[in-house]
Amino acid sequence: MLDHIIHILPYELKTIVNQLSQHIKNSLEEIRIRENRPLEISHHGSFHYVTEKGKTVLDSRQAYHPTQEQCRKLLERITNYSLYAMEEELRRGYITIAGGHRIGIAGRTILEGGHVRGIRDIGGFNIRIAREVLGASKQLLPKLFGGPSDSLQSTLIISPPQQGKTTLLRDLARALSYGDYRKHAMKVAIVDERSEIAACVRGIPSFDVGPRTDVMDACPKAEGMMMLLRSMSPEVIIVDEIGRVEDAVAIREAAHCGVKVIATAHAYNIQEAFGRSEIRTLLQERAFGSVVELKRNEQGFMHRIISVDRMLEQNRQNHGFFSLTKKAGS
Amino acid sequence: MIVQTSVMLKLFGAVLIILAGTAIGFVQAASYVNRSKQLRLLIYSLQRLETEINYGQTFLPTALIKSSEGMEQPLSKIFTETAQLLEDSKELSMQEAWQQTIENVWGHTALRQREKDVLLRMGTVLGMSDAEDQQKHLQLAQLQLKSEEEQAVMEQQRYANMWRSLGTLGAILIVILMV
Do A81 and B128 make contact, defined as CB atoms within 8 angstroms? Predict the structure, then answer.
């Protein structure tokens, strides 16, 4: 998993990361490299500094301080010695490398007409390690099928940040595209605005998102959905983080075309999601067949599925806020 | 009989000297011809590199290999070997790889220190700025090489023929002096 990252690190940092204990390596989440400042890693939700010998410490003074030369080499390798080919990425502030890992960068920005055109004098890197969890959607997938025609239903997945929405979404795309469930391989299209789901490198997905999957990379969601509807005739569109007015328009358009949408939204629970007007409208219009609430714990993903029909029915009966129906949990 | 042999030997020696002198003259002349030719090719390949970087947004190692096409052996190595070093070792920075390759290859070319300085200077920025900036640096290098080329062509016209005749004539002079 760390191969791609070790590969791009300059020699000294490579040695240090290799010396980390296996336990830490397995759960490494971020490596933060700042020029002439302590080397930091985060794992298991906490952070540590790292010494030259690969020991984790809490005192920043004992930590290894990456040099300017190492940072330059790191930048050269991340960009494949071609900063000029990365202008779009620099404008967004991160570069995706092979393996789907994302490297955030910070430095002095270059402005043009008040907008950021790029970053130069890059002095900080945040290597975020991406983990592909094959089979993350295994338990959820069968429950997304249903409704009158007993087919895949449009689904809204809601969860707080860092709970594995993207991982789940990616695995759903893969499973639907391969036809893992019911042996029915579907045409899947992904709008990957932040290059997180498929982690495309030059248009080619780094993760396995399935053989029948098309990805519109780094594309605004609403526009991407419309483009895919016109160009790729998908059966399912997968999209991350919806919530704006344009997104709702595109989702309605997809529903009119009979295309299913699996989308995620940031919210702690369904009540909070219902509080956001665009999402509420979409739910009331029954653009989604079901809502999945997602939580992560030590055992893996926890989800419960709420049928939108029943939710709205109860909501009407209660003349106000609904109580939740527990349909499933695992 | 003995006299005849010594005359034969002298004649043979004289021919050898003349041949050697002519060869030296031609080699010297060729170095002028080669220099201007290599400079011309180098400018072409930098133009190609500029296009690859600025319009193609090709990654540098690939761009280097593409621009080396159409160049001849010692010179094309500057590009291909740098690309190779970057892909292989992963321990050298672009600047180090470029410098190392130029040092290795330079002896086999007909180029001089001034061109070397131009290329080395270009190597310090190659790849590591935005496309606009890359273009400026590459165009600057081309401009400098062009003025070198003009000079090289002038030198070629002036000295190449001179060396060719000078070699033979010099050898004949030596023969006459020795006789």
Answer: yes
pLDDT digits (tens, 9 = 90+) for B72-119: 888 899 999 999 998 886 688 899 999 999 999 998 888 999 999 999
Chain B neighbors of A7, CB-CB under 8 A: 90
Lowest mean pLDDT among A199-203, A212-216, B61-65, B107-111: A199-203
Q: Is residue B8 part of a domain?
A: no
Q: How far apart are CA A240 and CA A259, in angstroms?
A: 16
- Domain residues for the domain of B37 are 17-178
Topology of domain A3-128 in CATH is Beta-Lactamase (3.30.450)
Question: Could you give the residue range(s) of every CATH 3.30.450 domain in chain A?
Answer: 3-128
B160 close contact with A: CB closer than 8 A? no
Residues 6+ apart with CB under 8 A from B81: B101, B104, B105
Q: Does domain A141-317 have CATH number 3.40.50.300?
A: yes
CATH 3.40.50.300 placement within chain A: 141-317
Q: State both tokens at B119.
A: 């290329």
In this predicted structure, the answer to whether residue A323 has a pLDDT above a threshold of 60 is: no
Contacts of B159 (CB under 8 A, 6+ apart): B28, B29, B32
Chain A closest-CA separation from residue B18 CA (Å):
54
Nearest residue in chain B measured CA to CA from A88: B130
Tokens representing B131 are: 């496309």
Q: How many domains does chain B have?
A: 1
In this predicted complex, what is the ipTM?
A: 0.80
pLDDT, tens digit, 9 for 90 and up, residues A147-174: 777 788 899 999 887 677 888 899 999 9
